Every structure is written in structure tokens, then in C-alpha cells.
Amino acid sequence: MPRHGGHNESHRTTSIVSPEAPVKSSAIRSAGACERQVAGVRAMVEVDRYCIDVLQEINAANQSLETVALVSGHVRTCMAGGDARDRDLNARELMAAVGRLVKTA
Questions:
Q1: I need a surface site. Which of 26, 42, 46, 75 has the fewest CB within 10 A?
Q2: What is the extent of the structural domain holding 67?
Q3: How far apart, in whole angstroms, are the C-alpha atoms of residue 88 and residue 92?
Q4: Contact, 27 vs 74, CB < 8 A?
Q5: pLDDT attached to residue 56
Q6: pLDDT at 74
Q7: What is the Cα–Cα distance from 15 to 35, expressed in whole angstroms?
């Protein structure tokens, strides 16, 4: 599964099937919401907002991230590309990422 940005970026050249337009649009909208929420958290910290308000905004940002990360249609299309070995590797990477996500929730 390709990743964009970050220090753990994969350098495999697996052929990945593009996600369907509605699924991609949904993921883009969710990512935009997450960006706004994270910017809101930063602004709240800068002006010393009440900690419960900051935590609620962090929770909202986490939920948006989960939506982006786990859009099921996108996961299915990402997993569809490549040969059996690539799909197995993609599945292991996906499960490791889900495991990390669950541990932080």
C-alpha cells in the first residue's frame, strides 16, 4: 500500500488499482477536515484554551484520521493490485498499521 510522506515510506513499485472517484473524494474531504482540526488544536494551545476543549478537538482529529485510514473501498482497491506476493505484503502492512492505530486509540 503506498504511503505519502513520513519517514517510513515504502519504496516498492507495486501496481496499485486507483480507488474509485467517490471513495477518493471522501478520503480527500476527511483529510481536509483533519487538517483543519489539527490547525485548530495548534491555535487552541497557542491561546491556552481549556484542556478539555483541546482534548475534544484532538479526539475529533483522531476520528477524522481513522476515517481517512480505514475507508473500506479504498482499502479494497489498494489491496487488489499486484501479484499474490504483493497482496500478502500489502495485507501484512495494513494489519500492522491497523494494530498501531488501535494501540493509540
A1: 46
A2: 21-104
A3: 6
A4: yes
A5: 93
A6: 64
A7: 29
